[in-house]
Amino acid sequence: MVNRGDGRLAVAFLAPVLIGFAVFYVYPSLRGAWYSLTDWNLLSEPRFVGLGNYAKLVGDPLFWNSLKVTFGYVAITIAVQLVAGLGLAALLHRLTRSLVIRSLLLVPWLVPSVTTALLWMWLLDANLGFLNHLLVGLGLDNQGFLTSPDLALTSVAVINSWGGVGYTALLLYAGMLLVPPTVYEAAALDGSGEVRTFFRITLPLMRPILAFVLVVTLIGSFQLFDTVAVTTKGGPVNATRVVYYYIYEQAFTHFKMGYASALALSLVLILGVLTFVQMRLLRASTSDLA
Amino acid sequence: MKFRACLAVLVLATGCGAAQSSGDGTTTLTYALWDDVQQGAYQQCADAFSKANPGISIKISQNAWDQYWQNLTTQMVSGGAPDVITMQASYYPQFVKNGQLLDIEPMVKADKVDLGQYRPGLAELWVKDGERYGLPKDWDTIAVVYNTGLAKRAGVDLSDLTWNPADGGTFEKAIARLTVDANGKRGDEPGFDKTKVAVYGIMPELNDGSQGQNGWGDLAVSNGFDYIDKNPFGTKYFYDSPKLAETATWFRRLIEKGYAPPYDKTSSLGIDAVLTSGKAALGITGSWMIQTYLGSTEQKFAFAPLPKGPEGRKSAFNGLADVIYAGTEHKDAAWKWVKFLGSAACQDIVADNAVVFPAVSSSGERALKAHQAKGRDVDAFVQAAEDTFLLPVSDHGDEINQIVSTAMEEIWLGRKDATTALTAANQQVNALFTGN
To answer: ABC transmembrane type-1 domain: from which residue to which, for each copy (chain A) (predicted)?
Structure first.
C-alpha cells in the first residue's frame, strides 16, 4: 500500500541533498552553459555572442593540442596505474594480507598532490635534483625530466601514478577478495599455476571492479591540473598544457570566462561519451560470478 | 550582477577585506601588496600615516605574486577589492580598460603634487588618455650578478664588459673563461668538453615572458631593438626585428657552445638556486634580488654593470605605483594614503629599510646610503639607472606573454631558428590589436 505521507517524508529527507545538488551543481552548470555563449572577462557585463566561442574553439590549435596532450597523459597514467596496481594487488592478495603493508600502500595517496608535485620537482630537477645527481654519478647524462618537451608529460604522468597507485591497488585488491576461494581451490586442484590462475580466473572475475577503476582513473586523470600547475605550468612549448590547465589559463590568466566555459562544456561532453562507451564495452553492470 | 556580487560578498565576507567604517567613526583602508620583504617597511609607513590622520587606519593585505592578480580580479568581481593597490605597469592596462581604477589626475592637480620629485619617466607611465592612475613608489634596474670566488679563480674582470651579437665581445670571453668542464678545462681552452660541464659560465634567465627583463631584453635593446611603436600603449610590436633575432641567436649559441645549460636541462628552481649551488658562475638579475644574493651563506656574490652593447649599456627600468580601486567607499581617505605613500616622508622610511629603491629621487639616494651602511655594494644597479629603457606597456599583456615566451622556448630548444619563430609570434601578437 502506498501511503501519501511517505512521499512527503521522502521529499523532506531528500531535500538537503536536492537543495545542495541544485545550488552547487545544477545552478552553476546552467550559468556555465549561459556564459559559454557570452564574451565575459569577469569585470565587464557578459555580452551575448551566440556560438562564437564554440566556433573559435574548433579553430584553436592550442585546444586541440591540449586534448592530444591530455589523451597522451591519460593513456600513460592508466597503463602505469593499472599494471602497477594489479601487480601490487596480486601481491597483497596472494602473498601477504598484512594490514600494515596495506596501510603503507596508501601513504603516497594521502599526501596532498601539490606536496607530491613539489617533492618530485626537487627530486627531478635537471641541475640540482637528487635523481640527476645519481645519473651523473653513474656516468650518465643528466636529464631534464620536467624541462624537456620529450620527457615532461611522461614525468608528470609517473609522478601522479606514484601518488595514485596505492589507492588503485587497494580497490583492485578489494575486487580480488570478491572472487570466492572455492574457485581458486578448484583451479589449484586442476593444476593451474599462479600466473595462469591470475589471467584465467582472477582477472575475468573482477571485471566489474576493473571497469569501475578504469572509469574512475580515466575521469580522474582527465582532471589533471595541480601537478602541472606546480611543476611545468603547461610548458615546455605546450608539452604539458593539458585541457584543464588550458581552461584554467583562459579563465584566470586571460580572464576569458566565456571561452573557458565553452571549453569546459566541451570537456563534459567528451567525458560523458567516453564513460558511456567504456561502461558498455566492459558490461560493467553485470558480473560473471552470478 | 548585483545578486552575484551579494552572494560572493556573503561567501567571502571575512576574506574579501573591503573597507569598513567601524562604530567609533574611524575608517579602515585595506592596502594590497605582494612582497613580504617590504611589508615591514610599509607597516611603518602605515603607522606614521595613522598617527598623522587619527581617523584612518590601514590594514595591509599581502598575497604572494603568483596569487596576487587572481585574487585582485576576483575581489573586484565581488565588489570587495582593497581600497589601495600596489600595481605593476604591465598589469594595469587591463584594469583601466574595465574601469576598475580611479583617475587621480583631479586630486593630483588640486593638491599640487610635485611630480618632479620622482625619477624621470616614472610618473608618466601611469597616464593614459590624460587620466592618471597611480603615483610611483619604487623602481628597479638590471645588472650582472657573479660568484666572486669563481670569477677570481678564472681571473676575469667583469667591471666593464662589452657585448655584440656577432662574437659576444668581452662578455662572451668572460663567460667562456668562467665555464669549467669535468676535467678542469676552461671554456676557452683547447680540449674543453662541452658535454661534461661542471660549472657553466652563465645561467641565463631564458624563460622570461615577452620582455626578457632579466637578460635577452636588455641585450636586445643595447643592440638597437625596440619593442613597440609607442610606449606606453602602443598597438604595434616589433618582435620580428632582426636586432632581437640576432640577440636570441647569440643566447642559443651559448647553449650550443656549452657555456650555458641546455634549455631542456635547465633547473626549474630559478637561476638564484643554481647560482647559489655554485653550478654556474654568472647571471643577469634585477635590483629586487639584492638581498637574496648578498645574503647568501653558501656563496659570495657581487654585482657588475651589464655589458656595453652596440648602442651602449641598456637596463630595463620598471616601476611600481599605488593605485586606488574605483569601487572604494573611501575615496578621500584612499587618496590621502596614496599621496602619503608617494611622498618623501613614506619613501624615506622604505629607503631606510634598504630593500628597494624608492621612486622619489632623494629617497632613492637615501636607499643607496642605507645599502652602503649595511656593507652592500649596489652601485651597479644605481649606475644602470643612468641609461635605461621602459618595458613595454600595452593592452593584451598576458596573451603576448604567452605567445612570445612559447616562441622563445622554441628558439632555446633549437626547434626553430630565431627569425622564423619570432616573425610568426609577432604576427600573432599584432593580430591581437587588429582583431577586436
So the answer is: 63-278
- Mean pLDDT score of chain B: 89
A-chain residues near B270 (CB < 8 A): none
Q: Could you tell me which residue, A196 or B423, shows the higher pLDDT?
A: B423
Q: Are residues B214 and B182 in the same domain?
A: yes
- Please check the confidence at residue B4 and state whether its pLDDT lies above 60: no
CB A255 within 8 A of CB A42: yes
Q: Is pLDDT above 90 for B335?
A: yes
B146 in the same domain as B135: no
Low-confidence ranges of chain A (pLDDT < 70): 1-5, 284-290
Whole-model pTM: value is: 0.81
Coil, strand or helix at B42: helix
- Is any Cβ of chain A less than 8 angstroms from the Cβ of B100? yes
Do B99 and B246 lie in one domain? The reply is no
The DSSP bridge pattern shows strands B180-181 and B197-199 to be: antiparallel
Q: How confident is the model at residue B11 (pLDDT cuts 50, 70, 90)?
A: very low
What is the domain partition of chain A in residue ranges?
Answer: 59-282
- Is residue A148 classed exposed, middle or buried when 0-12, 13-18 and 19+ CB atoms within 10 A define those classes? buried
Q: Do A237 and B207 make contact, defined as CB atoms within 8 angstroms? A: no
* H/E stretch holding B372: helix B361-373
- Cα A269 to Cα A263, A264, A273, A274, A288, distances in angstroms: 10, 9, 6, 9, 31
Out of A121, A150, A253, the one facing B268 most closely (by C-beta) is A121
Total domain count for chain B? 2
Min distance A127 CA to chain B CA atoms (Å): 5
Q: Is the pLDDT of residue B328 over 70?
A: yes
Claim to verify: residue B284 and residue B235 sit in the same structural domain: yes
Size of interface A-B (CB pairs under 8 A): 83
Query: Would the pLDDT of B165 be above 80?
Result: yes
The beta-carbon neighbor of A43 closest among B100, B268, B413 is: B100
**B178 and B279 inside one domain:** yes
Is-contact B15 B316, C-beta < 8 A?
no
Domain boundary among B347, B367, B385: B385
Kindly state the DSSP code that residue A111 receives in the 8-state scheme: S
The pLDDT assigned to B70 comes to 81
What CATH code is carried by the domain that includes residue B274? 3.40.190.10
Nearest to A125 among B99, B195, B269 (CB): B269
B7 with B60, same domain? yes
Q: Looking at domain A59-282, which of 3.30.420.10, 3.40.630.30, 1.10.3720.10, 3.40.190.10 is its CATH number?
A: 1.10.3720.10
CB contacts of B408 in chain A (<8 Å) are none
Cβ-based contacts of B406 with chain A (< 8 Å): 235, 237-238
pLDDT (tens digit per residue) in B170-207: 999 999 999 999 999 999 999 999 988 999 999 999 98
B77 contact residues in A (CB cutoff 8 A)? 42-43
